[in-house]
Amino acid sequence: MTTAFVLGGGGVLGAVEVGMLRALLERGIRPDLVLGTSVGALNGAMVARDPSPAVIGKLTELWQSTSQPQSQQVYGDSPLRTVRRAVSTGTHLWSAKPLKQALQDEFGDLRFEDLPVRFQVCAASIERAAEHWFDSGPLVDAVVASAAVPGLLPPARVGDEHFLDGGIVNSIPLGRAVRLGAARVFVLQVGRIDRPLTVPRRPWEVARVSFEIARRHRFIRELEELPEDVEAYVLPARGTSGRDDSLLGSRDFTGVQARIDETYEASVAYLDDHLGPASADDA
User: Fold this and answer.
1) Residue 282 contacts by C-beta under 8 Å, 6 or more apart in sequence?
2) Count of CB atoms within 10 A of residue 155's CB?
3) How far is Cα 89 from Cα 252, in angstroms, rounded to an integer?
4) In this structure, are residues 41 and 122 in contact, taking their beta carbons and an 8 Å threshold?
5) Do the Cβ atoms of 263 and 237 come closer than 8 Å?
């Protein structure tokens, strides 16, 4: 049976996926296929490189470090520099250089072909106006392309193409996992799919709400269209709220450890309910 981990996008909310991964790996569930979009591409790359409980410590350390002042440069500059960049470029607020450097420090020249687990990353091609899946070549370029949030980071160039955040075209790629032969899929999502939406009252809220409708609609449709012989488990996220969807919320890394811990506990309970209590051999 081919087991897939599907890691969705969600910016700072991606910390909850660490709690889900811990619950899965401690139970002895290992992926044969990992698919990642946006921040899910980063978390997915980590687990595809090391699909063992040992990766949880590394992921936790990575996410905890984002709450430290010295690391904030990876996710955004000073307000003045941000304004200057927005005016000068007209397209984005933050530079992608610190993020790419951090990824290079972590992964170096690692390629998809070097990973012990099959891994694919989703991004949106600008020139082709199409969903694109990276499954070969340098890992860092693919992750940067998948995480190029429109308006916040510049489009990422890979070869002769430019890419934006994969969440635009496939935020939670459940259907992709099925098409690649997965018979058991664990969906690691950041908690937005069941969060009530409200009517937008400001211009910038219109785009956010529109995006949320599109991403949720696709996921729910793919969930309803699953073949009868495919098992899908949507793990629960905890510690998130509507404020995380705001522009300022995209830089709020407070409470990272609480989100990880609460989601871990909820995921353990979920897996016990759906798969039965874990045995001592699973640890």
Assistant:
1) 26, 27, 28
2) 19
3) 24
4) yes
5) yes
